[in-house]
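ok so i was messing around last nite and threw this chain in just to see what happens. nothing serious, just curious
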Amino acid sequence: MKTLKNHQANVLDVKARAKEFGRQIKLSTLAGAMTLLIAQSSTSYASDIEIYTKPSESSASGVVVMMLDTSGSMDVSEAGSSACDYPEGSTDKKYSNTASYRETLSASAGGYTRRFCTADVKTYYYRQIPKKTCSWYDYGCTPVPVEKWYSCGENGSFKTSVCTTEIPKPEIPSNMLKDGSNYYYKQENDKKIYDRLSRLKDALYTLATMPVYDPTTEEGEKGIKKDVKIGIGLFPYIGTGIDINRRGYIRIPAKAWGDLNSPQRQAVINLIKSSDFKGGGGTPTSAAYAEAAAYLLGTTTGGGAYSGIDISKLQDATLVDIHNNYVSPLDKSASAAECSGQGIYFLTDGKPQTPQSTDTSNLMAKALKRTSYSFSSGLSGGENENAYLGSGYGYAKSDWQAIGSFSKSLNDPQVIKNALGVDEAKRSVLTAVVGFGSDFDGSYDEMNQDAKNAYNWGLGAEEAGIYGKGGFIAARESQEIVESLNAFIGKVGGSISSL
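result:
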């Protein structure tokens, strides 16, 4: 098994390689999915999955349902400083649940609230690749004919792997230092370290305000094609009493992304500005996964305490029809089956924690339009398997076997044909998985069992993945979420054949 760190260097040339039409991108360190830009946090591990950020101009567009973790561990006001994912080597770490550790951005910058911790850290701003010549006897030497410079982002980064944007030679401030690998950095005190939820907001805002990708002029190369449909689901739903760990739901229907300031982009901005877009509750991963699939396929999870379909209908009545089935955002025509794609982008920061009383097989059966559903062997274990959640909440299960089985079913064209009620068995549903936060640091062998399972869940077909096949990325930076989503869109929305 490859380690995450073995491929980290590949990230450095992502942007340059993305500029070449039809070129394959390899995002380093796991098995990835998505495209580029935004601000700070800490570590970057992507994958070896081959993806394409530029769909062909003639291809149909894809549909992606994002299912995003908003559990308590994402929010520093709920989980404390562990939600900030301090960079390695940080000192003088500080946080208190007061106004001093939150900020509301100006209207022109999004108008949403962010929470943060502080610490003394090393922040990287530039990478230099010096000019280099090679003699005939320098075996293995790679010449560099022209000196190159790369930016680590306007506000710098805690991780060198995001220093990928080529720039002219910058003016280096006198207070900036250079390390032995030619990275320029500042040692900064009381640096803001934003919590996971704030970094997720930053990523969504960046996606909503990026230029439209233009395949003719290559302008907006980091943007999304305007006819791609993107929807957003959240988990867990926070209800009353003990209803804080049971289900996911669809918050924004999947519609065409559109031009700048389009209704769909504005809906995303309104979401991150909303006071109820905050962290809380547990991590009912399996139920949320079934909910995302049911919406994509136009089926149901049946209603009841562990289904999110009734909650989704409260968010937007157009999501659900009179028969209590979701209204699928997919084009079910035979022509769309040939040249379009669909997938689930699942972002989570930790360990699945589904109540044992959840009838997961029933949720998944209904999502696949079956009368029953049995789990195959595969993923297993997890920290919350048989864990006691407290008085009134009972015991939990990780449900990894259910998650692995369901992802395999979603990649079976015959299963998708039957669920959609179409004639041709030509569609499958890819699942990309983003492990967001410090639980996913380090090599595969260093991960806990839940992180290993998440890795295998998302592992791309190109890496011999057998479950979600959409790619896995271990992320901390907002930038990495943006990169991974755009790449996944490229994969499901008309990918170009390998050259």
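not much to say yet. The chain is about 20% helix and 20% strand.
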